[in-house]
Every structure is written in C-alpha cells, then in structure tokens.
Write a structure and sequence with these properties.
Length: 101
C-alpha cells in the first residue's frame, strides 16, 4: 500500500494543478471581459455626454429660432396693421387731412 499512496498523491496533485490552470484561465478571461466592459462603459459615458451637449445646443437653437419667428410674426402683424390703416385712409380720404396712426 505504500507504493499506491505516492502514485495516488501524484494523480491528485496533477488533478489539482490542472484545475488550478483552468481556474487561472477563467480568471484571465474574466479580467479580459472586465477590461472590455470598462472600456465600453467609458465609451458609452462619453457618447452620452456628447449627446447631452448636443441636445442642450439644439434646445438653445430651437429657443433662439422660436424667438426670431415670434419677432418676425410681430413685425408682419405690425406691417399688416399699417397696411390696413393706409388702405382705410385711401378708401376714405375725405375723413380728415391726416392719416390715422
């Protein structure tokens, strides 16, 4: 039985070494995956920040455009009122010497 024990022990050591190698390979794979995930998260974070900046810029552009449109509409309305006053005056020139304001 003395001879069987060292052989049995060597087999167990070999099995343990093989299992350790598998564990180390798994750990290397996990570390590689984690690095990839970190890079992906960083890239996604940067992309999100860029998108947020773009959305803010678009909102600012939209607000400025809206303000310009409103000013233009006010100008158009004022011009329309002026045209209507002029037409009213031209249609009834005998109502007075001055054009209504």
């Amino acid at each position: 039985m003395t001879n069987a024990q060292p052989e049995n022990l060597e087999t167990r050591v070999t099995t343990i070494e093989e299992q350790l190698e598998q564990v180390l390979e798994s750990l290397d794979l996990i570390a590689t995956i984690q690095r990839g995930v970190r890079v992906e998260v960083r890239d996604n974070s940067q992309t999100t920040a860029r998108l947020e900046r773009t959305v803010r810029q678009l909102a600012e552009i939209s607000a400025r455009t809206q303000a310009v449109v409103l000013r233009q509409q006010d100008t158009i309305n004022q011009q329309q009122e002026n045209i209507e006053r002029i037409l009213t005056y031209l249609e009834n020139p005998n109502r007075g010497d001055t054009m209504p304001n």
